[in-house]
Amino acid sequence: MTQAQGQRPKAQGRSAALFDRALRVTPGGVHSPVRAFRSVGGSPVFFARGAGARLFDVEGRAYIDFCQSFGPLILGHADPHVARAVREAIDNGWSFGACEPYSLALAEWVARRLPWVERIRFVSSGTEAVMSALRIARAATGRARILKFEGCYHGHTDAMLVQAGSGLAGRRAASSAGVPDGILNDTLVAPLDDLEALQRVFDADGATLAGAIVEPLPANYGLLPQRRDWLAKLAALCAAHGALLILDEVISGFRVAREGMSGELGLRPDLVTYGKVLGGGFPVAAYAGRADLMELVAPVGPVYQAGTLSANPVGMRAGLATLSKMEETEGWSVLNARTARFCAELAADFSRAGVPIDVVSHASMFWLHGRTGAPVRRVDGIPASQSAWYGRLFHAALARGVYLPPSGFEVSFLSMAHDDEILGEARAALAASAQEAGQP
Ligand code: PMP
After folding, report:
1. CA of 425: how far to CAs of 2, 159, 229, 418, in Å?
2. What are the sequence ranges of the domains in the chain?
3. Ligand 1 pocket check: which of 123, 152, 161, 251 to mutate, most ligand atoms within 8 Å of Cβ?
4. 379-399 tens-digit pLDDT
5. What is the pTM of this model?
6. Using CA atoms, how far apart are residues 202 and 160, in angstroms rounded to an integer?
7. What is the CATH number of domain 80-328?
8. How far is the CA of 353 from the centre of ligand 1 (A)?
9. Fewer CB within 10 Å, N or C, the chain?
């Protein structure tokens, strides 16, 4: 039990009553684990409504929301342009299980702008997208093994629920029960930000790798920006050893920029996965990449993948409305500049308040941790106090009407709806919360 759990305040009110009921019908009372507040302690807030940058709980209290559904809502909650597109879609029937023009429009929108997207296939979750990309990599290369990196999350497909033990040659342990040993043997795990370890893993096992998968901006274990030369070396080693480079842009795609991290880094992935912003908050994800690889997928090729609700027309139109509005308003540059300003001011507020906190940010995402001497690029560089400290910060912020993601290892997201006035209000609340939370 973490310290935060040990200090769990007794929950009261309507949210607590709803959670008691939820516990009787759903494992842990939630449909996705982080929502249960276990890593920050306390009882989860039940939200009834979202509008712009704000969420409203079941008692009508407002919160400035920096979770934004863990990333998809780049325009904020209930954006009117997206809402119009969705209403129009619903009026015309919401699932056909057949060909329709809406997925074609979204597929063409993406493929015309992202040169590495020669073909794209829509699915309903990031997990499915990754699972399907791995299947293609194995089919295309005739190899079984996949290299992943410690601290990167790629959804809950069995092969990706593996963490490193100590060191590359060390014991590998599944990070979930129910994952068969046989699957662990085909997943190698290496540390991030370690050029020598990368070289060693390819020297030893490069010829057996179907592919390497990485979040080009790791954002599932804090925000751990990688050095360009490390990512470039990974790409070069993949090419030299005939392993496919799979960039998992489920968070970073259409978030950091229209072209995602692939564009920012000048990397051309063999396969790429998208989700979150692509569907504007609806269950939409995709895998995409080189035509020769993607043409291995059914019905043209031998790799099977299908989905009853794939390319659901409501999600397709929400995604297209989101992306086209971002493009028309030059949203990415506006939002990234606003976030950079906000994070610089927030860091100054923390300094003035005398609390040693680093504000790590990239594009419209940020992550807070206790001050370290150097940038944190690996899981083992995260301060040991992170969980307990963040739990205190989270609750201090919640009490002041700011909803941060309910785990110290999740990143915060800004949306286009976070205007300067709202951000000013958030800064004041976060500075006071940091003082209350004490030393990280
Ligand atoms: N890959 C990455 C990089 C992710 O961040 C996530 C989800 N946070 C996934 C895959 C899995 O996506 P989903 O939750 O839609 O299955």
Report:
1. 31, 43, 39, 10
2. 13-78+330-437, 80-328
3. 251
4. 999 999 999 999 999 999 999
5. 0.96
6. 19
7. 3.40.640.10
8. 35
9. N
